[in-house]
Structure formats: C-alpha cells, structure tokens
Amino acid sequence: MQILSRAPLPGREEAARWHKAGSVKRLAVLLLALAVAGCREVRVKTYAQGTTEAPGGNEIRIVQSSGELERLGIHAPIRYKHEFGIVLLMGPHHDAGWHQVIESIRANDYRVQVVAFDAGPPAGGDPTPEYRTYTLWIIPNSVYRRGSEIDVVTPSNTPVASTVLR
Hints:
This protein is α+β, with helices and mostly antiparallel strands. The chain is built from two helices and eight strands.
C-alpha cells in the first residue's frame, strides 16, 4: 500500500474508526446486494415504434386482446395469457417524418410516469394522410395492478395523456 500524503500514520483509535467504517460500508453493500437479488425482475420490452393510420389524438391504450391491437393497425406477437400491451399514441400529424422520443420511465407500485414527446423532421416533411406515432410496450400480466395510474408528460412536465388500469 502506498501512502500518498505526508500525514503521520494514524494511531490505534483512528485505525479502529477506519476499520469500523469499512465494516459498516461492507455490510451496507452486502445488504443491498441481498435486497436486489431478492427482488423479482420485471421485464418490460419496448417492442415497437412506428406509425398508424388509426384516427384520434394523444392517448394511452391498454391492449389485452389481438382485436384491440389490430384496430390500431399494429401487429405484434403478444402472448395475451401472460402479457399485455401498453400503446402510447401521439398525433395526429399531416407531414412525414414524425417519431416518438421516450426520455424516461419512472415507476412505483401505483404510478408510472413516462416523459415523451413527438419529434418532427428536421427539414420539414412532405404532406401525407393523417397518421399518429406509437410506442408499444409488452409487459407481464403479473405486474398489472388495478388502479395504477399511467401518465405521459413532456420534458417540461406538460400533460400529454393519462389512464388508470381497470
């Protein structure tokens, strides 16, 4: 061990304090590791992002059947016995090149907050028929909690859409 300062070597009391502080830190790290290992891992997949011609404005849809997803014009291999989908729809847009940007997702047992926005084409897009952008997340049914709120806000905290799981 190399000593980098010219300070005198610590006395027995100071060495005991350093040893005790190191033991407390090691115990804290061990407890954190056990807590993390004991947590159930939830895998949320951002399955797809794209566009759909389904009419409407900004909204969040909870998708629990293939018919609901097909009505939105989205095709995805969701195993509905084990999973459900959450679709964030934004728009409508009338020029090509819009896409969603998801900045963050924060969740606890009763609330999920998504920070997202639609980004337009840098040089302006060509006129197109009306469409909406979407992001689809596939989530295990085991985390579905009735009464949980899902809120989408912009980076400046302006509400975009929200829903409550029923």
